Every structure is written in structure tokens, then in C-alpha cells.
Amino acid sequence: MEFTAEMIAAFLGGTVEGNPQAKVWTVAKIEEGHEGALAFLSNPKYEHFIYDSRATIVMVNKDFSAQYPVSATLVRVEDAYAAFARLLDLYVANKPRKSGISPQSAVAPSATVGEGAYVGEFACISPGATIGKNAQIFPQVYVGDGVKIGDNATLYPGVKIYEECVLGDNVTIHAGTVIGGDGFGFAPQADGTYKKIPQIGNVVIEDWVEVGANTCIDRATMGSTVIRRGTKLDNLIQIGHNVQVGESTVVAAQAGIAGSTKVGARCMFGGQVGLAGHIMIADGVQVASQSGIANTVKKEGVRLMGAPAYDAREYQRAAIAFRSLPEMRLTLARVERELNELREKTE
After folding, report:
1. Residue 281 and residue 269: Cα distance in Å, rounded?
2. Residue 74 and residue 58: Cα distance in Å, rounded?
3. pLDDT classification of 252: cutoffs 50, 70, 90
4. How far apart are CA 260 and CA 218, in angstroms?
5. Does an H or E element contain 148, and which?
């Protein structure tokens, strides 16, 4: 699809500076702009790229003042970053959705596939499973017995959904993710071996959740592992059995949450954060990358850092002191030596 600068400005409530009939049919980063591409400039750190960019149209903030000539047509808006995000939403919404059931897929007679849904090649829809309207089930997806998948859900290639799990409307699961694998439950025996504890619960993922590639969310021992509405999980995350993650929480890559932990709403966890099992995290807690949380966090909205994690500002002060330890050690040795010399003189 092609869009003119005039059309883009009208959609965003902006103004055109340059050729209103300039046409674009793709998007690009400003430093990689080329003919027919739409780019944006929001961060002043990237301003120097606009003067050499070959993008046909560049969106800028209304208060942007060019220091040198710009060859691109400018579309001025209140917030270029937010406006660009709106355009990307429009682009995605207008992408054609697949529909129909591939003859190379395996759909059980007792399964239900909603109107307008797509089931790709070598996908397997097991007995009793329900696929919602307009859902997108890409090739090589496995949907287990009795699984329920909501309307407009998207499961990318290689996703595996074990039996009896429930996914809400508008859920997106990226390639290679496993939903409903067994929780890590093993009971130590007198002879030093471990007996597996059957994991008979399921996983419930509410509406508008997005789960990144190669993430694993374990089924509950009993009851449900629950990911609440609007939560966003990155790639390569491990969610243990019986965990509950509150709504609109975001978790970055390689984080891990151990079994039976309850995470509040609107929390933010950086990459490689680890949470111990059987603890509770209050609403709005923010945890810096590579931090470890070993105990319950009761106070809402705190920022934590370190392993074990504690208040981020205290951690930063401690980190400054840590860098000074070699010098402090030399100072302490000098003071100790001087004290010994004084003691010898007085004796």
C-alpha cells in the first residue's frame, strides 16, 4: 500500500512541510532511510541522521528546528514516536490475515475451529480443542486435548499448548514457546532418589497477553498457573508451576519466576531477574536486570536492584563504595601502620 505525506498528516493530525504528494510504501530507521521509506525523528541524539537520510518522508516533533537543509518531506506532529507507533498499528491492522484449514494439518473431528480461523500446514488440533474466531494457528503448532484458544489469538510456528490450557482473546504466542509443560515437582525419597509429583493443573492466559519466543510456562500441580490480562513476556523466560502474574506486568528476556510465587499488577522486571518460589511481589514493583528476589516484597512501587535485591538507590551507593574498596584498603593499611608507629613511640 502507498501513502502520501498528505494522507499521513491527515491521519495523525499533523502538518506537511515539503511535497504533500510524496509517496511511501515502507518504513525504515532514519539512519537507513531510502526512497519510498517513512522514518521518524524523536530522540535528539539521532538528529544528525536527518540531514543525510534518503527517506522520502520523516515524521518530526512540531518543535523540531532544522540546523541544515533537509531533503525529505517532513510531517510535523505533537509526538513523533507515538505517531509512528500509531502508523505501525495501522500497518499491522491492514496486513491480510490468513484463513482456512490446510489439508496438511490434523484437526480432530471433535475439535472446533471458529469462523475465519487459520490452521497451517502440519499443525495438530487435538480432540476437544476449541479455536476461536479469526485465530491464527501457524504451521507445526500443537494444540492439546481440551485446549481453549480465544478469538483473534495468534500462535506462531512451533508453539506447543499442552492439554486443558486456556488462552484468551487477542493472545499472541511466539515461535517455540511451550505452554503447560509439567511443573518442576519432585519429592526426595529416603534412598536419595526423587519421585515425580503429577502435575494435573493447567495454565490460564488472559486476554491481550503476548509471550515471546522460546518461553516456557509450566502447568500447575493443582489449580492453574495464571498470566493476567495485558501482561507482556519477552523471549526465553521461565514461569514455574502455580505462579500468578498480575495484569499489565512486563518481564524482559531470560528472567525466571519459581513456583507458587505471586507477582502483582504493573510490575516491571529487567532481563535475567530471578524470583524465588513461594513469595509475593506487590503491585508496581520494578526490578533491575540481573537482580535476585529471595523474599516477599510488600511495599508497592519500590525499585530494587542487586542479588539479593534491595532498594535501588542504596544499591547504587553501595556499588560506588565497592569500587572504592581497593583505595580504602590501602588507606586502612596506612592508618594501621601509622597507629602502630605511634604506639611504639609511646611505649
Report:
1. 11
2. 5
3. very high
4. 11
5. strand 148-149
How many residues are present in the chain? 347
Q: How many CA atoms lie within 13 A of 117 on its CB side?
A: 26
Contact 15, 75 (CB under 8 A): yes
- Give the position of cell 484437526: 107
pLDDT at position 342 is 86
Among candidate residues 34, 174, 241, 278, the one labeled active-site is 241
What 3-state class would DSSP assign to 265?
A: coil
* Residue owning grid cell 529416603: 190
Q: Residue written as cell 543525510?
A: 52
Grid coordinates belonging to 283: 503491585
Task: Identify the pLDDT of residue 310.
Answer: 77
Beta carbons of 158 and 140 less than 8 angstroms apart: yes
- 34 part of the active site: no
Question: What one-letter code names the amino acid at 274?
Answer: G
The mean pLDDT of the chain is: 95
Query: Which of the pair, 306 or 233, is modelled with greater confidence?
Result: 233
Cell numbers of 128, please?
476437544
pTM: 0.83
Cross-strand pairs, 119: 101, 137
Residue-wise pLDDT for 67-111, tens only, equals 999 999 999 999 999 999 998 888 777 778 899 999 999 999 999
Total Cβ atoms within 10 A of residue 122? 14
Model confidence at 278: pLDDT above 80 = yes
